[in-house]
Amino acid sequence: MTIVDQNVEYRPLLMIIGRKVCTHEIPLDSAYQYVAYQPAFETAWAQLQYDLGVFDTLDKAQQTIHEMASKPMFKENFLFVCDQNGHLVGSAGLWPGHHYGMERLRIHYVAVSQAHQHHKIGSSMVSKLVMKYDATPGKYPLYLATQTNSYGAIAMYSHLGFTAYLGAYEGCTKKQSEANWTLATKILREKSTSSI
Asked: Cβ atoms within 10 A of the Cβ of 64, count?
């Protein structure tokens, strides 16, 4: 995930990807590797999430990772990427969400250090998680929650095959969802034009 742009209006968004839309895992660049969870990653994970603007305070980020790491499913559902020096540079997971009024797995807490972005780390992690989800039985598409001020992440998710969810979900009507995506589309067009 790119840094949250605090200068852009925040509105919640959901994206979905159908099963078997993502047909292969994008490999990590050879300068990076997946590593198993280590309790020492909790501090680095919290700092990474805080630096990207996902949490308002470092304490909230630390509390969140501590609570998640205590759950049995955490180790098998979260990915950690380190550079050649063993420093945590990225993380993402499959984690329960409740946007649809029931518990469903979603892509959650995708983060890549600013110094290591644009090396396809985020795409690699998300594609790996999508492939893992596709290997499990189920009838619902995988989803993720994002926001209008995370337009870099929206572009990456779209490139991987995620599409806008325009329906109602917990805390958001169909009309609000459609309006949020209208704004997101406008922001994406403005940002892609300004980067040319």
From this structure: 17
Q: What is the amino acid identity at position 60?
A: K
For the stretch 94-137, pLDDT in tens is: 999 999 999 999 999 999 999 999 999 999 999 999 999 999 98
Q: ∠119-133-168 over CA atoms, to 5°?
A: 95
Parallel/antiparallel/unpaired status of strands 12-17 and 88-97? unpaired
Query: How do beta strands 88-97 and 78-83 pair?
Result: antiparallel
Residue linked to tokens 């050879």: 30
> Of the candidates 96, 112, 101, which has an alpha carbon nearest to the alpha carbon of residue 2?
112
Rounded to whole angstroms, what are the CA distances from 31 to 28, 116, 125, 152, 179? 8, 10, 15, 22, 41
Q: What is the pTM of this model?
A: 0.93
| Helical H segments across the chain, by residue range | 41-51, 58-69, 74-77, 121-134, 151-160, 174-194
CA distance 163 to 142: 11
